[in-house]
Predict the 3D structure of the following.
Amino acid sequence: MKLAITGKGGVGKTTLTSLLAYLYAKGGQTVLAIDADPSPCLGAALGFPPEALKGLTPIAEMEELIYERTGAQPGTFGGYFKLNPRVDDIPDRFAVKHRGITLLELGAVEKGGSGCICPESVLLKQLVSHILLRRGEVVLMDMYAGVEHLGRATADSVDAMIAVVEPGARSLATAAQIKSLAGDIGLTKLYLVGNKVRSDEDRAYIEAHSPGLPVLGHLPYTLKAQEADRAGNAAYDAAPEMVEAARAIAQSLEKVLAPSPA
Ligand SMILES: Nc1ncnc2c1ncn2[C@@H]1O[C@H](COP(=O)(O)OP(=O)(O)OP(=O)(O)O)[C@@H](O)[C@H]1O
Ligand SMILES: [Mg+2]
């Protein structure tokens, strides 16, 4: 199972990714969680101990590795470098593991204008394609808003993309935008998850205003999520009601992705 989680800033992408990571890991699956946000914070949301996170460097910041694999210094544009650098050993060498979850941080690539081809972006693209196409575990990618950064190859190789929304007009407008961008790159398995839902009205609002996307379920609003965030604990441990809701979401996802009987 390969999932990408996206949505407007602050809606709860990282929180949902962390809940699903624990659910799949506790269910006995091997989980690779990828923090694809340029300001990584999935490790903290997973409640990884600070010592474990200290050992984690975003791949985009590994200058020596980028040079060794692409033959060019990061931050350089143009020039000659390998377009198919070796990446297969990177997930196991540069990730950290905690409670059955392997975490990898991609880091930020400085944009050199649209269509940037720089060594670090080539390495990251190759790495993401490799992970999505060749790795057998459950892969959860915590993205940042939008799908522009998702190439066609990535879109083809994720089983589904989840757009997280809040019961408000702005995050639903972002979901509509994501839907349109996803359509442009041929991604059709796009679903909504509501978060910070406080009432049946909130739930109904999201369902009524979905831009034509199936809603997998809703996570309740709870102060426990914020307290866990402040304390560096995982929502999975702090908020059982979120865990239950995330379990229902994972089950809906399984249903919609199950091959229809012939
Ligand atoms: N269901 C919830 N109830 C209450 N607070 C929540 C809930 N879900 C998330 N939060 C809080 O909202 C904030 C943003 O959540 P999170 O970091 O998961 O969002 P995000 O979409 O990943 O944000 P960003 O766009 O910055 O990456 C955090 O402080 C988190 O604890
Ligand atoms: Mg986030």
